[in-house]
Amino acid sequence: MKRDNWITNIFLALLISLLTISVAVASPLTQPKADGLIGEQSNGYLGLVHQDVAVDIKKLVNETNSKRKAGYQKIASTQGTSLADVEKIGGNTAIKKTLKGNYIRDANGVWQKK
Q1: How far is CA 33 from CA 2, 7, 29, 38, 83, in A?
Q2: Which end of the chain has fewer CB atoms < 10 Å from its terminal CB, N or C?
Q3: Which of 61, 98, 105, 68 is nearest to 86 (CA)?
Q4: What residues are paired with 104 via a beta bridge?
Q5: Which residues of the chain fall below pLDDT 50?
Q6: Domain map of the chain by residue range?
Q7: What is the spatial distance between Cα 5 and Cα 89, in angstroms, rounded to a whole number?
Q8: Residue 86 contacts residue 44 (beta carbons within 8 Å)
Q9: What is the pLDDT of residue 18?
Q10: What is the pLDDT at residue 106?
């Protein structure tokens, strides 16, 4: 049973990595991340580092998060696991792939430069 969990976790991580990579290379996110306006969070979603950002940045974050959630839900459904587990793995993967100098938000809600 433990072996099956381990294999499932590896498979989930690979699927989420693919999802995250496809989102991470999306050019609309690159500049706002580099400017310190948005960052990756441990919950698997983008967040606003500063609340006083332009409406188009807020829209970009909301649209990206909606796409991520749909992807996470699909993975959770396919793998028979919880959305929360997939989001957590997605968050860890996105944070690992975040470029140095961009912001990440830990589970305690603290923003910091990677």
Answers
A1: 38, 33, 6, 5, 25
A2: N
A3: 68
A4: 40, 112
A5: 1, 24, 26
A6: 2-113
A7: 14
A8: yes
A9: 58
A10: 84
